[in-house]
Design a protein that fits this description.
single chain, mainly alpha, 16 helices
């Protein structure tokens, strides 16, 4: 009788890390649901009254409370809420009478497309700017980078959006106006385009509709550029800080003394070692754009998740507000998990 061989000892830490990550994600998700459930019970809005209206009889309201489980103890209501959420049931919108999950799934791709393009632009501009500024502290480039970053932190996003529309759309006509497409393309969107992802740039490319792609790009480039500016300000500042600290390390001095080319010292060795904290910075910036683009979406009439939550909040549509909040929280959790995986790819020490 042969015994089953034990797993290699080097796999045990990996299994522990995976198990710890799964437990952490579950606890975080449960905490998110607890917060949203608490908010739904604290806000003085009667969901039954919102659903049935003021003309409903007492018997109808009591029947609705019984059907929704609102007469149960709070702990049982929370259990029902968790069970429904895990099954994909985020409730029904009071305003539209449509399932919240269905509406969020229609709106989220627009926000995802906008935030992704803005993050890509922010990283492509912010990381090199931060690295170059760190290698030339006190120079004109360094001072300019810090000034641009400070302006990005200081100027309100709604002001940037309005000024951008006034200049680049109203005066110069270089970009498209509010919305994701011109009216003509918008009307033909559902009939002439197979929507694989809900992100118009990607779907038009997959459908070889380059005329529609160009029109969508003209609409997204201004709001994405404004969000990219805010993202770039944060990323460049943090990259500069990380690089200045790294360039003062002994191994950098040793590499320079040995005659290693300066470009390789900076862009390979130093930058590689700041990638782990930089991944966190980029992930946080991306998560912020996914949920913090409310004003940008409102100004540019962008039909994304931020504007959806804002519109629902204005009419006290709490199922829609809480459903959107849960989706944003899940996005945060997913980005944290992705960051953790990227740590292990970039830094071998994280795999031990």
């Amino acid at each position: 009788m042969t015994s089953t061989p034990a797993p290699p000892s080097r796999l045990i830490p990996l299994f522990r890390q995976i198990g710890g990550t799964v437990v952490t994600l579950f606890v975080t998700f449960l905490g998110l649901l607890m917060v949203t459930f608490f908010i739904s019970n604290v806000i003085p809005v009667d969901p039954v009254l919102s659903i049935l209206g003021e003309r409903a009889t007492e018997a109808q309201m009591e029947e609705a409370r019984e059907r929704l489980g609102l007469n149960e103890p709070l702990w049982k209501q929370f259990g029902i809420y968790v069970s429904n959420t895990l099954q994909g049931d985020l409730g029904t919108s009071i305003r539209t009478r449509e399932p919240v999950l269905e509406e969020v799934s229609q709106r989220f791709p627009a926000t995802l497309e906008l935030a992704t393009l803005a993050t890509i632009l922010g990283v492509l501009l912010g990381v090199p700017a931060g690295v170059i500024a760190a290698t030339k502290p006190g120079s004109f480039f360094d001072q300019s980078t810090r000034l641009i970053g400070l302006m990005g932190y200081s100027m309100p996003v709604f002001w940037l959006g309005l000024m951008g529309l006034l200049l680049f759309y109203g005066q110069l006509g270089w970009v498209g106006g509010p919305g994701r497409l011109d009216a003509g393309y918008q009307m033909s969107l559902d009939f002439e385009l197979t929507q694989y992802t809900g992100m118009i740039l990607l779907d038009t490319a997959l459908n070889n509709r380059w005329d529609m792609f160009a029109n969508a790009f003209s609409h997204i480039i201004l709001p994405a550029g404004i969000l990219a500016y805010i993202s770039m300000a944060y990323i460049s500042r943090m990259t500069r800080s990380f690089m200045i600290n790294e360039l003062g390390q002994e191994y950098i001095t040793t590499a320079r003394v040995k005659g290693m080319p300066e470009r390789r010292v900076i862009w390979v060795h130093a930058l590689k070692n700041v990638m782990v904290p930089l991944i966190t910075v980029i992930a946080l910036s991306y998560a912020y754009l996914l949920e913090g683009a409310v004003l940008t979406e409102t100004i540019f009439a962008w039909p994304g998740l931020g504007s959806y939550i804002t519109d629902a909040l204005m009419v006290a549509d709490m199922p829609a507000v809480l459903g959107g909040t849960v989706v944003v929280g899940i996005a945060y959790i997913g980005l944290n998990m992705l960051s953790d995986l990227l740590y292990r790819l970039v830094d071998p020490r994280a795999r031990v």
